[in-house]
Amino acid sequence: MVGRTNRGDARPVAAAFPHRSSETALTGHGMGGHGALYMANDFPERFAAVASVVGSIDSSMLDSLGHVPLWAFHGEEDTVLPLSEVQKLSRHCGPGERTHA
């Protein structure tokens, strides 16, 4: 798992597995969705897209995602992560990108 304090540890993994950033999508569910958003925030040049299922990110970091297309999925009956947190992601989404609740 990639946490806030050690998310830079993904660099050796990316180096060990050659890939084309233009063809690499990042996904995650729950804490994995949270981690996917942070990884895309930290390394936007490495990913063609990110999809987060029930994940969120500090809204002040959204501008750092830059060109990375974002799909965010969430349920309005979630009692752990308020839907309003994920709806903040929709402000980042441009044409062709979506958030789903």
Question: If you had to describe this structure to a student in words, what would you say it looks like?
Answer:
The two termini are 25 Å apart. A four-stranded parallel beta sheet has the order 1-2-3-4, with helices on one face. It is built from three helices and four strands. The chain has a single domain (21-100), classed as Alpha/Beta hydrolase fold, catalytic domain (Rossmann fold), CATH 3.40.50.1820. 23% of the residues are buried. By secondary structure, it is an alpha/beta fold. β3 (70-73), α3 and β4 (98-100) form a beta-alpha-beta unit. The chain is globular and about 40 Å long.
Percent of sequence in beta strands: 15-25%
If strands are numbered along the chain, what order do they take across the biggest sheet?
1-2-3-4
Number of strands: 4
Total DSSP helices: 3
CATH names the topology as: Rossmann fold
Helix content: 25-40%
Structural class: alpha/beta
Shape: globular
Multimeric organization: single chain
CATH level-4 homologous superfamily = Alpha/Beta hydrolase fold, catalytic domain
CATH class: Alpha Beta
Largest sheet: 4 strands, parallel
What number of domains?
1
Distance between the termini: 25 Å
